[in-house]
Amino acid sequence: MGLKFDGKEVKSGSKTVANFKDGKNLRDGSSSGGKVLGNVSDGKNVRDGSSSGGRVMCNVSDGTNVRDGSSSGGRKLISLKDAAKAIGGSSQGPSTALVWWYIAR
To answer: What is the pLDDT of residue 1?
Structure first.
């Protein structure tokens, strides 16, 4: 069975593989105390770990594509629409890029 992201949890079948309960950090497993994989604290950059100063992995600066690095002119990795399909979600924002980068890429 494929992935399903409902805005709070990422599930593979009935197993929760990650959660986004605080709306900022993607955490491993179902616990709100799980290891932080990445964050979207500034609303456009997907960063490694929990720090707002963490390394930028990708960004959604143009609002329609997930791009490599922090530049809005970076290489297009995937459209947000296709990333949402890949994670079984419907939203097309920074949280979609975060989950796609760490779980479905």
So the answer is: 56
The contacts found for 81-85 with CB under 8 angstroms, 24 or more apart, are: none
Rounded distance, CA 102 to CA 71, Å? 19
pTM: 0.94
Give the pLDDT confidence of 31-59 residue by residue, as tens digits: 999 999 999 999 999 999 999 999 999 99
